[in-house]
Amino acid sequence: LDLDTARQELEEFIPHVKNISDSSIKKMAGRDLLRFKEFKRQGIAVKFGRFTQKENNQIQKNVEEFLSLTGIDSAEKLLFTSRYPEDKDTIHRLKSEHHFCEKISEGIPRPWRLIYYRARKMFDPNNYKGRYTKEEKEKLKQYQALHGNDWKKISELMSRSNLSVAMKFSEIKSAINYGPWTKEETQKLMDAVKEVMRRRLKAEAAASLSALEESNTDLWIDREKLYQQLPWTEIETKVGSRYWRQCKQKWNSILTSKMSKGQQLYRGTNGLQAKINLIKRLYETKAEDSSEVNWEELSDAIGDVPRAYVQAKFYRLKVSSVPLWQRKTFSEIIDYLYQKKLPELEEKL
């Protein structure tokens, strides 16, 4: 397909296709378009967002079958070939001969690139390695001084994932302040978020440019845009005294307070009732994985609060109430909360 036709055909499946580069469109036309059309024929929509447990299991199956087919002896060699320079040529040849792109994405209605990134995250032995030691933190600072923000290089030197080293450096380089937020810090945070929102709105709505440039008053923004992913490391830099995770948590608390008009939603009787409502509503969804839950709709189980607030409350609830929750599936956690915790909360109420 020529580029314009490919972009036009992909637009049916990917609404934000106009923001994707020409080179990525060419790759998607080869790797994804036929798959998307086949899924459409089966009545299956292309998905984005968090992967479900069912999709993770399918990726696991696809990778294991490809290893069995080719004789490549580990998922790490398959997905992180650059770590094995002596086997690189052989692995690339096998991937090409046995149609790696098609095989790894089999049965999953998502863009190939996202499936590939998910597989890399699942099979990277350098992920989930626990807390950083003091020695590792010192090494990280030294490597960053030598290599700048080349997180791929640093991740190889430290045997940690790219994301892990980038986020940990962001945390330790900041002048971390663990005390209460001052008015000045809070204002800096709100100004930084507003600046990011303004820039995003300008990019999304060129027709509204003049109106945005003429006015520096408060922006009117669709509610859902307030919860979407923001560039927290950039916001961290603008705030100056807090690292990115603190900024994110504070923004969520500001949103919650404004949306709920300052009500004490999780205190006393209200708190008990909110937990009861949340458990019941989660049980009613019959979801197999947290990504299948519509957290936006669920937020009214607690009050007029952001989705992130509800997710945070659910996290605290499972950690404090469900023994060995890390070893349980999402549906097992919900069943436990419904069968064991709910009667206890109702009696207390």
From TrEMBL:
<feature type="domain" description="Myb-like">
    <location>
        <begin position="124"/>
        <end position="172"/>
    </location>
</feature>
<dbReference type="InterPro" id="IPR001005">
    <property type="entry name" value="SANT/Myb"/>
</dbReference>
<dbReference type="GO" id="GO:0003682">
    <property type="term" value="F:chromatin binding"/>
</dbReference>
<dbReference type="Pfam" id="PF13921">
    <property type="entry name" value="Myb_DNA-bind_6"/>
</dbReference>
<protein>
    <submittedName>
        <fullName>TTF1 factor</fullName>
    </submittedName>
</protein>
<dbReference type="GO" id="GO:0006363">
    <property type="term" value="P:termination of RNA polymerase I transcription"/>
</dbReference>
<feature type="domain" description="Myb-like">
    <location>
        <begin position="173"/>
        <end position="255"/>
    </location>
</feature>
<dbReference type="InterPro" id="IPR009057">
    <property type="entry name" value="Homeodomain-like_sf"/>
</dbReference>
<dbReference type="InterPro" id="IPR053078">
    <property type="entry name" value="TTF1-like"/>
</dbReference>
<dbReference type="GO" id="GO:0005730">
    <property type="term" value="C:nucleolus"/>
</dbReference>
<dbReference type="InterPro" id="IPR017930">
    <property type="entry name" value="Myb_dom"/>
</dbReference>
<feature type="domain" description="HTH myb-type">
    <location>
        <begin position="124"/>
        <end position="161"/>
    </location>
</feature>
